[in-house]
Amino acid sequence: MSAGQPPIDSPEITRLTPVLGPGHTYASVTDKISAIVLTRPTSLGWYIGFLIAFSVFGVLNIAIGWLIIKGVGIWGINIPIGWGFAIVNFVWWIGIGHAGTLISAILFLLNQKWRTSINRFAEAMTLFAVACAGIFPLIHTGRPWYAFWMFPYPSVMGIWPQFRSPLIWDVFAVSTYGTVSLLFWFVGLIPDLATLRDRSTSKTKQIIYGMLAMGWRGSARHWHRYQSAYLLLAGLATPLVLSVHTVVSFDFAVAIVPGWHTTIFPPYFVAGAIYSGFAMVLSIAIPLRKAYGLEDFITMRHLDNMAKVMLATGLIVAYGYFFEFFMSLYSGNKFDVFLVQQRLHGPYSHFYFALILCNILLPQLLWFQNMRTNVTVLFIMSIVVNVGMWLERFVIVVISLTRDFVPSAWGRYSPTVWDWATFIGTLGMFVMLIFLFVRVLPAISIAEMRELVSETSEERK
Amino acid sequence: MDGMPENDFIDGHMHNNEQEDSLRADDHSDSNAEDSTLREHKLDLAAVRAKLREKSGKQYWRTLEELSDDPHFEDLLHREFPRQASEWDETVDRRNFLKLAAASLAFAGISGCRQPDELIVPYVKQPDGLILGKPQFYATAMPFGADAIGLLVESHEGRPTHVTGNPDHPSSLGGTDVISQASVLNLYDPDRSQTVSYLGEIRTWSDFLLAMQKPVVDAKAQGGTPFRILTGTVTSPTLAAQIENVLKQIPGSKWHQWEPAGSDGPREGSKLAFGRYVNTVYRPEKADVILSLDSDFLASGPGHIGYMNAFYRRRKLSGPNDTMNRLYVVEPTPSVTGSSADHRLPLRASEVEQFARGLAALVGLGGSGTLSPAAQKWLDAVASDLAKHRGTSLVIAGEFQPPAVHALAHAINAALGNVGTTLYYTEPVEANPVNQLESFTELCADMDAGRVKTLLIFGSNPVYDAPHDFDFTSKLKKVETAVLLSSHFDETAEYCQWHIAESHFLETWGEARAFDGTVSVIQPLIAPLYHTHSAFEVLAAFTDKPGRTAYDVVREGMKTLAGSADPEKFWRKTLNDGVVANSTYAPISVALKFSPSSLPPARIPPAGQFEFIFRPDDNVYDGRYANNGWLQELARPVTKLTWDNAALVSPRLAEKLQLTQRAAARGGEHGQIVTNVIDISISNSKVTAAAWILPGQADDVVVLPLGYGRKRAGFTGSNKGYNAYMVRTSAAQWTATAGGDAIKKTGDEYPLACTQYHFNMEGRKILSTGTLAEYREKPDFAREGDETPPKEMSLYKEFAYPGYAWGMAIDLNSCNGCNACVIACQSENNIAVVGKDQVMRGREMHWIRIDRYYANLNTETGDPEATDYDALANPQTYFQPVPCQQCENAPCEQVCPVGATVHSAEGLNDMVYNRCIGTRYCSNNCPYKVRRFNFLRFQDWETPSLQLLRNPEVTVRSRGVMEKCTYCVQRINHGRIEAEKQNRPIKDGEIVTACESACPAGAIVFGNANDPNSRVAKLKKQTRNYTILGELNTRPRTSYLAAVRNPNPELEKA
């Protein structure tokens, strides 16, 4: 915050805090953002960070390699807990992958200008999260080399997938979401890729960016077409944001396991997904703006707005928890009532209390303005919410399975080193991809920021 | 089997081989002159045309070469393999020699046809010739202690694969137990010893025969008795005759007997009661009231399978007006029998004698017993109940109780007028009944004194299982020539000069007497897999006819039994039936020469002392089956422990010693329980064991199961559990008493693999139980609170079952959790053994499991971590076999993404292994958790001998695939094919699942539920019939008939 601004704790002023720092021109915006990719020397910090992330990504590869060699028995899953970390992580990553498209598409359709500076990397984050998520359903199968049987393809045996299974719905939901998100992201990138092509000095970069820019010349007709396409894709992506996690929640809601079989799951999963997605955007935006001096582009207004979204979705999630509980007790179903007791008093109760703390109690601090505008608090809060949402999935997936209908079959689950290696490995992969992304592509949309320059300068007039 | 074999090296090696071979093959084809002639031979088209012209009518030819009658082609056609295949034209170098040696070793086990040379006669189906793919069934018998269990063994192309009971044999009556079911795995045990060896080096049989000349000559010359034979219990008349023959031919010889889990108690008890050894045969089917004095007669001891059949015949209920018998059990530790009793009284083993004395007094025999007031009250009620049923009651004393208890039981039975009705006496079935402890003690003393020069040991393992005060090992070292015949190179083999690999009973001829005297011929189903020999052959080495085979000996023995019948016809009939006709012993009448008052006063152990009792393990028995993976992985009926033995302590004792146990984070209640380790110092020796808290065990009693802690059992059985023989002395064979400092908590913890730790039903109607009175009052008590929704509630269309609708009814009133069905299923369906580590992770593979629940607990949670020990002092125990429920509305089917589990037209949930990708969603969604997943590659695909074991009609599953019970779909299809060939519907009872056929109590009934006259439909129509979790609308095809206990109203009031 520059010294000339009024104190930030004044509500009116905060509301008026610009989405773009003052004094920016088309040239300064373009310079600043493209410089990260083209001219600024790669910092030592980037190398160190990338190397660490890359090594962790290596761990993922080893973990998957060993898994293929030995089988899913290297994990902690068993009978009755057939799904463990893999599905927990899948749902968690898919949830994180919700924020990008939500910010890009829904906020775009709602004409929320503040989305501009965060949508690009939020979308990138979405793609990377979906990539991480996509690994798990594949490798968690006993015979991953046959996982393609889940796709409806004309096989010589005339065999189709079993369409009543929510896992098949999942395949469609996630692959559609991944495809549309990728297209949406790429279409948004085209004008910026052209800018990079025009500004880069080396032949190689010119060729690569040139090819990716697909002949963008910036003509009025291009812009016209581009905006229609972007709008259409935004319209297409919007329902997907809601559908993906709804379908993912069906994996559980359609099953008969107490703790899974509940109608509240679709909305509550979607809210949870947005919750965790925004938390992850914050977890990335805060270090990013710090590292690259982008405080003018990702302003306190952005952080504040995102914190508010988190607070709102967090309350929906809390409502979900409450009604999950209430309906279990109200239904009088002995298995559901028992599940509630198990969550509160069973061997895994500490997970449940940690979840309540992370997802419901601590985020209530976001009601306070000075918390929302404290970058450190926000960063910690975003991590807390991510942990909380991971715990939520653990509680739902694993704990429900440990004690279901027949007491003689009750068991327990504990992750093995390979469970952790796979999970941490995907974190490494995610961070590695983020590192690569900020290094080779504009992390903030140059074209949209230029638009914002003109709009904000008009506002100021 | 325990974990995954490390075969990287083998794989790599084989890979190299392939490369080398292919290179070499290429070389040959270029250089081999003969081959090139074939290749260069040109086809003469003119000759072909000429040939065609000569022929008339339709002609078929495969190639033009054939048509031209080319001699080279003829040659090629008649050669089975390509030319190079049969030649190995390189000098054999070291590497190739080793390769060949390895290959021959590997192939030695898998040569195809292993029919024995001598004639054997199939029992059930007698095809003209062997039809490939069609199993044959042969009658044989498994000798076991003082009993022989009659079996029908399924043979596929000469490989015995599965065992069922012989309905014509009194020891089986069609049922089996876990040990006989698992015996087929012993045959294929890869760790079996395979040759004759001398000081660990391989020798030939003739070397052995030659070497045995000297000791025989010496024995004849030396005087004294330097030549000794040590056997277990022998019931085979011909084997005994053979031994007698040897004893006769070698003047300085003597026969000793020793079984670590033998029955000196009953033997000496009969001598005490009648002045001579007699054998007791019970007839539980005739008894209305049965009292067991620490006898596990339904699950162990001679005749137990037949007894189980007979006992449960009296507990079948077709309606509320039926009657049933009543079983009282007094015992120190919960056994299978005790757990299914109507009334069970936990008493210390030493107090059982007091109880028997008290009972004798109450039936008017005099004497007296000292009991606690509660026990006395119980005894009074039992005594009056027995008195009300004179002639239809039965008192059975336990095998491991002292002679006095047996004598008292004989006296009480006589007093109650039961002799001749519910039990009778015969001549001993043992060929030479002796007090085995005395016999063995004498041998040990003589060995110690250097009086034994030559010792032949048959099938015993005394280095491992002799009482520790005998220090058998040091004595064995004093013997000049020790010869051991055993199936494995075991602990004793280490100290014997000669070791002879023993043939399995399925590999050799033999015969044995069952508990009631019936003689069976043991038919071999397969020629010996290795260079093994039977006891007959080894004994023949010491006679004047050393080359005689077991077949000759048995055949000759049968001639004497045939009597006036045509010996050939008699022989064939005997082989066919599995029993020698009219060989059952006739009842004898013996006079009681015993009065309870004449007994010396019993030693009453002082209060505050711990009582340690030794029992053969439920599965591995005295240790001889330790290397059997099926038995190791089978959850013990009551404790549900696998792969280990534990020191079983009562809950109150655990409280006193501050012993705890907890479910581990990994596996938890369905896998891994962490327990305290205790040091047990008794009889001047010490052993360290894991403690296991066992509800229902008498206070201050610690049970030490035998059979574990073996050092040389083999890959599967070595170094598992602790060796209870280390603290077992000759003076305290079954019960040892020690002061309060005998048990010390070491502070260490030990993980035990337990497949079911949680024993409380949590108020859910999983296992429905009631008393006979309740049943009469409310015949449909089992369905009370049943909330099965109407059929229209389902979203999906109802299946129609116009043809067969396979269903199963399991009568919980007939199940005592004996586990026979579990092993039968494992054997029939090629179910893998996964090892302790995987069991502890909750991944055991059994398709049918037996759940055990405790009732009458006062605690709310039933969690054994809670310390309400009173509630656990004597709970009621119930068992429930749970196979796949084959739901009509199956939750598993709806969630499989690839349709790998589908509904059949007859209502089965079929598993398509090939299609399964292993998402495990089906298992998550299965409310009964009966699905099993191959988390790793659990099957052993390499060991050749285990490949012979597999049932060829069932897929051997690989990793990553879900599997589960299919109601033995292969047997259903077999039955269907047979019926369709004859153009008739499948008859009821024609298709029998493996679990059903194994069950000695007939608790499991399978059949067509659509046929109102089928057994299963009739059972399902009973009011006791209910389904588990009916409210989920799964509509299981497996239904249960509620367990009904028949308590004594007199005791109920209290």
Description:
The complex is a heterodimer of chains A (461) and B (1054). Chain A has 461 residues and is an all-alpha fold. Chain A has one domain: Formate dehydrogenase/DMSO reductase fold, CATH 1.20.1630.10. Chain A is built from 17 helices and no strands. In chain A, helix 7 runs antiparallel to helix 9 (220-253) and helix 13 (349-361) runs antiparallel to helix 15. Chain A is globular, with a radius of gyration of 23 Å. By secondary structure, chain B is of the alpha/beta class. Chain B is globular, with a radius of gyration of 31 Å. Residues 1-40, 84-88 and 858-867 of chain B have low confidence and may be disordered. At the A-B interface, helix 7 of A face strand 30, helix 28, helix 29 and strand 34 of B.
Terminal CA distance of chain B? 51 Å
- CA-based shape of chain B: globular
Spatial extent as radius of gyration of chain A: 23 Å
- The name of the CATH superfamily of chain A reads Formate dehydrogenase/DMSO reductase domain
User: What share of the residues of chain A does DSSP label as strand, in percent?
Assistant: under 5%
Low-confidence stretches of chain B: 1-40, 84-88, 858-867
What are the main properties of this structure?
heterodimer, A: 461 residues, mainly alpha, Formate dehydrogenase/DMSO reductase fold, 17 helices, 0% strand, globular, disordered N terminus, B: 1054 residues, alpha/beta, nine-stranded mixed beta sheet, 34 helices
Produce a short descriptive summary:
The complex is a heterodimer of chains A (461) and B (1054). Chain A is mostly helical.
SSE topology:
The complex is a heterodimer of chains A (461) and B (1054).
Chain A: H1 11-16, H2 26-37, H3 44-70, H4 85-96, H5 98-109, H6 116-139, H7 166-199, H8 203-213, H9 220-253, H10 265-291, H11 300-331, H12 334-345, H13 349-361, H14 369-372, H15 375-402, H16 417-440, H17 446-460
Chain B: H1 8-31, H2 33-40, H3 45-54, H4 64-67, H5 71-78, H6 94-108, E1 136-144, E2 147-156, E3 159-165, H7 178-187, E4 196-198, E5 201-203, H8 205-211, H9 213-222, E6 227-231, H10 237-249, E7 253-257, H11 264-274, E8 279-282, E9 289-293, H12 304-313, E10 326-331, H13 336-339, E11 343-346, H14 349-362, H15 373-388, E12 393-397, H16 403-415, E13 423-426, H17 436-448, E14 454-458, H18 462-465, H19 472-476, E15 481-486, E16 498-501, E17 510-513, E18 519-522, H20 535-540, H21 550-562, H22 567-577, E19 610-615, H23 629-633, E20 641-642, E21 647-649, H24 651-657, E22 661-663, E23 671-682, E24 685-693, E25 701-705, E26 735-738, E27 743-754, E28 769-771, H25 772-777, E29 806-811, H26 820-828, H27 836-840, E30 849-855, E31 876-882, H28 891-895, E32 901-903, E33 909-911, H29 921-925, E34 932-933, H30 944-949, E35 962-963, H31 969-981, H32 994-998, E36 1004-1008, H33 1015-1021, E37 1025-1026, E38 1038-1041, E39 1043-1045, H34 1049-1053
Parallel strand pairs in B: 6-7, 6-14, 9-10, 9-12, 10-11, 14-15, 15-16, 19-25, 21-24, 28-39, 29-38
Antiparallel strand pairs in B: 1-2, 2-3, 4-5, 4-16, 8-13, 17-18, 19-26, 20-27, 21-25, 22-23, 23-24, 23-27, 29-36, 30-31, 32-33, 34-35, 37-38
